[in-house]
């Protein structure tokens, strides 16, 4: 452990390094060794350990009362000075970074902040050291703490005793806990009896006395709470059905060389839907066995070389488990590494006898293809929406490794390769050709993926070439799914069709109906917060539209965003609108402190700390408790996936005439710009030809009659002078510059070749002394003179000029 100190509230934090796929599955080993005054080293034994609900932190307590917190998300650990020697530790499931510590001195229960190390509250009432701590999943305010001789249920709303259970000699408590699902309290006693109570009334519901099982020591529940396992020092394991109150099966552990069990616990795995199939058994010989209850075989056995295992702890999601050894160390395991190691060790690879290399490669390729096809078929068969939703409700999120596959199953994407290839072949859409000027994207691959996705959407439906929020909405999906471009397009298209219903009915203007639904739900559940928005002058376009247009990516971190979209895609389309209202209500304390519109806008464009579990729970409450009259479900249709075929279905849920007119105006303005630029080029060319012709004529006239009047410079205006309201550029000024009009030159100037330099200064000086009236008269005369010069360049102009001179 390399110490990189980081002072946070006077707590030193150090970096940790986890082993990547170790052979024995141990990713980290924790031991506490001190050096005594005589120079000898002494190892302090650990006695208790507990994971938090998110599997991000592990708390370990030693016999001296020191607490060590390991953060697997930040890869750091730190030491807390405890409240004395402790007998049990447990994280509070509904309070973040709060640890319960049961002390051995006064038998008190202390609430400790793991970030600061301060004890915030203490519960007193036990007369013996506490061994078991459990929380109710149905009622977050219920906590039970138990010693061998008594159990106390606490009401955490006012931190008082709710119920006290006293035992008698010979029937002391071996284990007591709340069931994971349901409202039952189950206790295992030394007299081989299991008692079940109702949580609310503490009324006895069932008493189980298994005849085959003697000297019972431990019980365990599956995550869905439907099955219970019972084991003891005898070599018998009993599985009990909690729905029918009947025994499912009895397993003889002696067949697996297990003489008895000190402790048991179910291992949660992905895609098991809470029906956990693997049971961890700590045997009497201090070894840990993983038993497959379906196949009835031992998957793997963990026997550390240094010493035996005293007790073990499994995280709620099954990602990690820890073992406290007899010598006092703590080994932390990654469950997936352990299972992969077991599979690899049990798999035997046989080399083909007298087979050529090519035949061996073909056989291996066939086996690989067959196995991959079987895996995909099995995953599609297993991943129905109901089963996936049970997994999501159990673990709170889908595993990162299978997220894209699960999203494919939830959205039922058609994988139309020909249709997608046709959209890609149309190239980059003209609207998104220079999108890098609007967004700062450092990765070229991400930029190209975003361009390709937006172009395909715009080619598929012209609407998506007009909506300005689309790049910001799709960008987080690009970051997550860019390795599979076709699924990326079909995923975003499915979301736009189903989860963005009624977004485009007033396009390109904001979705008034959607914002009204959100405001109605917020008014129904938190009128005070809505009143605060009105007082500050904040509309739903600030607190709702900005969140929707960025798909929550600006207000949530990457992990939070992925978890939220796991829940959005697993639920009905109205869930996303409820998530917007839930975010505002959960953040109400921070929002109510904001007093200006600018602060509000900044708040809804930045990431703010939020408890993911509270946020999602509030969203589900809004989804279930909102009245039917204002529920968005009333206005939405059911989910309909993209159709499979050679082309994608038409999307017409927008004002087609309005969008078509808008696109036509864009095309027309684009063509006008090109036409005007060509006209300017023609005009400049005409100017240059006329100016060269006038200069040549002036030189010829000067050579023939070099008088003072002939060598003076002259100016004329065009035949049709421009009005002040015209959009054409103004006429040329007296400094010799030439302004260009749309068709004809606005003004041109002809000067004598011999006197052009000396006359320019003389003319500037003379113009300064001219009055406004005289200047206009001089300009008219010069304009008339230049008209005559231009007419001379036209065919037949010499005859008209001679005739006019004769008349004059």
From TrEMBL:
Name used for this protein in its record: TBC1 domain family member 31
UniProt region (Disordered), positions on chain: 710-783
Basic residues: bias regions: 750-776
InterPro entries: Rab-GAP-TBC_dom, Rab-GAP_TBC_sf, TBC1_cilium_biogenesis, WD40/YVTN_repeat-like_dom_sf, WD40_repeat_dom_sf, WD40_rpt
Tree of life domain: Eukaryota
Localisation per UniProt entry: Cytoplasm, Cytoskeleton, Cilium basal body; Cytoplasm, Cytoskeleton, Microtubule organizing center, Centrosome, Centriolar satellite
Pfam families: RabGAP-TBC
Record-annotated Rab-GAP TBC domain positions: 397-572
Biased composition (Low complexity): 715-731
A GO term for molecular function: molecular adaptor activity
Single biological process term from Gene Ontology: cilium assembly
GO cellular component, one term: centriolar satellite
Cited function: Molecular adapter which is involved in cilium biogenesis. Part of a functional complex including OFD1 a centriolar protein involved in cilium assembly. Could regulate the cAMP-dependent phosphorylation of OFD1, and its subsequent ubiquitination by PJA2 which ultimately leads to its proteasomal degradation.
Source organism (scientific name): Plutella xylostella
């Amino acid at each position: 452990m390399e110490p990189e100190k980081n002072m946070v509230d006077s707590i030193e934090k150090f970096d940790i390094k986890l082993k990547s796929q170790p052979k024995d599955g141990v990713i980290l080993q924790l031991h506490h060794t001190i050096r005594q005054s005589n120079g000898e080293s002494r190892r302090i034994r650990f006695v208790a350990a507990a994971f938090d609900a998110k599997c991000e932190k592990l708390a370990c307590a030693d016999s001296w009362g020191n607490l060590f917190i390991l953060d697997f998300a930040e890869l750091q650990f730190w030491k807390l000075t405890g409240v004395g020697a402790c007998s049990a530790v447990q994280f509070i499931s509904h309070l973040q970074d709060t640890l319960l510590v049961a002390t051995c001195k006064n038998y008190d229960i202390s609430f400790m902040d793991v970030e600061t190390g301060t004890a915030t509250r203490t519960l007193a009432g036990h007369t013996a050291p506490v061994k078991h701590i459990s929380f109710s999943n149905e009622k977050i305010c219920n906590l039970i703490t138990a010693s061998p001789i008594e159990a106390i249920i606490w009401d955490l709303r006012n931190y008082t005793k709710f119920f006290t259970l006293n035992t008698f000699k010979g029937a002391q408590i071996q284990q007591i806990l709340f069931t994971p699902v349901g409202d039952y309290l189950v206790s295992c006693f030394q007299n081989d009896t299991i008692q079940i109570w109702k949580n609310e009334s503490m009324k006895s519901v069932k008493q189980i006395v298994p005849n085959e099982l003697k000297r019972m020591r431990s019980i365990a529940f599956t995550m869905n709470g439907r099955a219970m396992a019972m084991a003891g020092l005898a070599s018998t394991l009993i599985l009990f059905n909690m729905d029918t109150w009947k025994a499912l099966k009895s397993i003889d552990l002696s067949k697996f060389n297990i003489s008895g069990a000190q402790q048991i616990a179910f291992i949660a795995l992905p895609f098991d839907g809470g029906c956990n199939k693997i049971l961890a058994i700590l045997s009497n010989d201090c070894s840990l066995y993983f038993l497959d209850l379906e196949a009835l075989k031992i998957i793997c056995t963990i026997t550390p070389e240094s010493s035996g295992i005293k007790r073990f702890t499994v995280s709620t999601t099954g990602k990690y488990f820890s073992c406290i050894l007899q010598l006092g160390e703590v080994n932390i395991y990654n469950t997936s590494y352990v299972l992969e190691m077991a599979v690899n060790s049990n798999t035997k690879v046989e080399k083909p006898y007298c087979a050529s290399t090519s035949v061996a490669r073909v056989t291996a390729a066939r086996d690989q293809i067959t196995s991959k096809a079987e895996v995909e078929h099995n995953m599609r068969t297993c991943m129905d929406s109901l089963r996936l939703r049970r997994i999501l409700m159990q673990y709170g999120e889908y595993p990162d490794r299978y997220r894209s596959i699960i999203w494919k199953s939830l959205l039922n994407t058609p994988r139309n390769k020909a249709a997608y290839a046709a959209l890609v072949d149309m190239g980059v859409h003209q609207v998104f050709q220079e999108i890098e000027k609007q967004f700062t994207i450092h990765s070229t691959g991400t930029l190209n993926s975003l361009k390709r996705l937006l172009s395909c959407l715009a080619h598929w439906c012209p609407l998506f070439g007009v909506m300005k929020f689309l790049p910001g909405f799709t960008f987080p999906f690009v970051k997550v799914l860019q390795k599979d471009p076709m699924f990326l397009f079909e995923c975003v298209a499915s979301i736009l069709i189903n989860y963005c219903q009624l977004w485009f009915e007033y396009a390109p203007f904001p979705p008034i109906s959607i914002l009204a639904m959100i405001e109605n739900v917020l008014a129904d559940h938190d009128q005070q917060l809505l009143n605060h928005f009105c007082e500050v002058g904040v509309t739903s376009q600030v607190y709702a539209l900005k969140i929707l247009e960025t798909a929550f990516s600006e207000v949530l971190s990457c992990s939070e965003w992925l978890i939220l979209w796991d829940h959005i895609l697993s639920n009905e389309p109205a869930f996303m609108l409820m998530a917007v209202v839930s975010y505002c209500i959960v953040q109400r304390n921070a929002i109510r402190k904001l007093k200006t519109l600018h602060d509000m806008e900044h708040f809804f464009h930045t990431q703010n700390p939020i408890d993911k579990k509270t946020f999602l729970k509030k969203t589900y409450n809004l989804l279930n408790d909102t009245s039917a009259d204002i529920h968005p479900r009333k206005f939405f249709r059911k989910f309909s996936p993209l159709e499979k075929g050679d082309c994608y279905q038409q999307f017409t849920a927008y004002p087609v005439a309005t969008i078509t007119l808008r696109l036509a105006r864009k095309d027309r303005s684009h063509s006008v710009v090109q036409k005007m630029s060509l006209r300017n080029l023609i005009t400049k060319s005409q100017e240059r030809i006329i100016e060269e012709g006038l200069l040549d004529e002036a030189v010829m006239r000067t050579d023939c009659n070099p008088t003072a009047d002939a060598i003076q410079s002259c100016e004329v205006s065009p035949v049709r002078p421009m009005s002040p309201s015209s959009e054409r550029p103004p006429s040329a000024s007296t400094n010799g510059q030439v302004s260009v009009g749309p068709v004809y030159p606005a003004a041109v100037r002809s000067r004598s070749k011999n006197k052009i330099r000396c006359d320019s200064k003389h003319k500037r000086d003379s113009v300064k002394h001219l009055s406004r009236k005289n200047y206009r008269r001089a300009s008219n005369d010069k304009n008339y003179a230049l008209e005559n010069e231009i007419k001379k360049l036209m065919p037949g102009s010499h005859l008209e000029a001679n005739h006019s001179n004769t008349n004059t």
